[in-house]
Design goal:
Length: 263
């Protein structure tokens, strides 16, 4: 069976399950379906240029974690699996200071605050974002809001010097143009502490994100997190050695790519 036929067959099955699920709002069902379809398209046409690793191989103990998620899907939110992994990374590394580029509705922000009850979180979004959502609406009335500090600014112009060398987890999911991602990445690298983690979202689906992350990967051990659009850079004591090329290819063929490439 061709790769296209396999994707189409799986998509039809997925759509049927989503439509039949009476417990999930319609917006959630089709939002997840659209995200799933985009991710599979990216796997076929935009394979990662960096090593792909499972979450368990990068974050010891994440496969044993139980993390409550408050799921209400909206376009531009990360998927539940991505949210689980990000919260699992946060719980495993226990950062005291977190910075997020791209607040949107605050879903990721809120879950990070819950995963790290002792952390202070700084989250940035544009001063005048698109009007179809309220920035940070998911956390504004939550108990965690006292530890969440909003910054309304263009990240390409904002002064991040007060944060230099202090952040232990940075999540980049703001502008997806190449110049925006480069600016956010440069600021993130200045902001991180010696032991820190940087995460990028939409690595596979936006060319600007992929190009910027691949450039970082030429100098740092960046990995693609299997089953997601997340790229991860672990620094200091969180750093995981890069696998050799043979191991990478074996993983891709045996765990992820075989169903797409077989006849």
């Amino acid at each position: 069976m061709s790769a296209f036929a396999k994707i189409l067959s799986t998509a039809v099955q997925f759509a049927g399950n989503a439509v039949r699920d009476p417990f999930r709002p319609a917006g959630d069902r089709f939002g997840y379906l659209k995200r799933w379809a985009r991710l599979n398209y990216c796997w076929v046409h935009r394979r990662p240029n960096i090593p792909t690793r499972t979450a368990a191989s990068l974050i010891p103990g994440i496969d044993q974690m139980v993390i409550p998620l408050e799921i209400s899907f909206c376009d531009w939110n990360i998927t539940p699996l991505e949210l689980f992994y990000i919260c699992g990374i946060a719980r495993a590394t226990a950062p005291r200071r977190i910075f997020e580029f791209g607040t949107f509705d605050g879903c990721t922000t809120l879950h990070l605050a819950r995963a790290c009850p002792d952390a202070e979180i700084h989250t940035l979004d544009l001063p005048n974002p698109e009007s179809h959502f309220q920035v940070g609406s998911r956390f504004l009335k939550s108990p965690e809001s006292t530890r969440i500090h909003q910054i309304r600014a263009d990240s390409r112009q904002h002064d991040f010097s007060p944060f230099h060398g202090r952040m232990e987890l940075v999540f980049i999911d703001a502008g997806h143009d190449y110049d925006c991602v480069v600016a956010d990445t440069r600021n993130a690298l200045r902001m991180v502490a010696p032991d820190a983690t940087i995460l990028w979202h939409d690595y596979l689906s936006f060319g600007g994100v992929k190009k910027a992350v691949d450039e970082v990967a030429a100098q740092h051990p960046v990995h693609h997190l299997a089953g997601t659009e997340i790229a991860i850079l672990q620094l200091g004591r969180h750093r995981v050695p890069l696998p050799d090329r043979k191991s990478c290819n074996a993983f891709l063929n045996d765990q992820l790519g075989s169903w797409l490439t077989s006849d």
